[in-house]
Write a structure and sequence with these properties.
Helix content is 60%, strand content 10%. It is α/β, with parallel strands linked by helices and 346 residues long. The protein folds into three domains: 138 residues, Rossmann fold (3-Layer(aba) Sandwich), CATH 3.40.50; 64 residues, Helicase, Ruva Protein, domain 3; 134 residues, Up-down Bundle (Zinc Finger, Delta Prime, domain 3). The strands form two sheets. It has a six-stranded parallel sheet with strand order 1-6-2-5-4-3, with helices on both faces. The chain has a two-stranded parallel sheet with strand order 7-8.
Length: 346
Amino acid sequence: MAVVKASELISHLSNPKRAPRAILVHGADRSAVYELCQRVTKKVIESGDETLNVSRLTEAQVTGSPGRLFEEFSSISMFGGNRVIWISATGDNLAKSLDPILANEVGGNLILIDAEALSKSSRLRKLFEAHPLAASVALYEESPQELRFRLERLIRSSGLAIDEEAMLRLLEFMSFERAVAESETLKLITYCQGQSTISVEDVQAICGDTSDASMDDLLDAVFEGKLSDVDRYVMSVGASATAGRGTLSAVLQHIVKLQGMACQITQGSTIDSVVHAPRFGIFFKRRASISMQLRTWDIDALLNAEEKICSAILQTRQHPDLDEALVSRALLALGRSARLRDARSN
């Protein structure tokens, strides 16, 4: 089966003869990767209970326990139905664990792997793209031209036009993550209802970027459990132009970075060496805070946080008028979790 388009993956799952044994979904757009994995999971388990029929694992948990993945693959659901083994991967160490599953003549539960964008030289990507029982789906970021065409179609469908200068300004502000770009444009459309054309002043008013420093302060306050600071930043940052999926997307990216750092620590690296590693690009003024966060949040907690934020992102898509409330609830919940975890560790 090898490489499959995202639009075709669900239809493959409907045909038992074409359904893959293992699926890799990778890309820089983490919310899009998560959403597709959620759709795959719901399709496979159908009406089953996700708490019983879905096992969430990290790459470190699989590679650190030889044979565990095959046991999960071969296990039978206690209450019947199909099961999904969903693994969050950060590198190529998982490829070796998949060999006996793809070589096994007897089928089992679906192995679903989500990962950040993988290069063509990745062992994991090569395995999934070459094996007939596996499927690989890459979710690439849009090019600037593709992004422009999509946003123009969205604006036209709302009955509005947009000035050339305004479109160029909009693209300057826009994230290449599909969900965030759509959310910001929908807010702009809502703001401009009652007029015929979107001007550069409209774009500036709604989509003007919040400083990176303010967002970093918000992220650190959330993951350190500083609830008073979280509440203050939610009012000044979360309810501004970065509200909704914009703010939540930044939180999600931070969680993914912490997961990568936490995986390095579980493999023997020290917190100090990880925080200073060039690959993670931690600004020197934030290193003390990030070190504290890594002592508070372990892999399991970060996986749980990722799931909650992705769920909140989907909710803002379904209820854009509730952006501010959804953002506030999600961030304060993470802040409370951080405070409780910190209290238990002391």
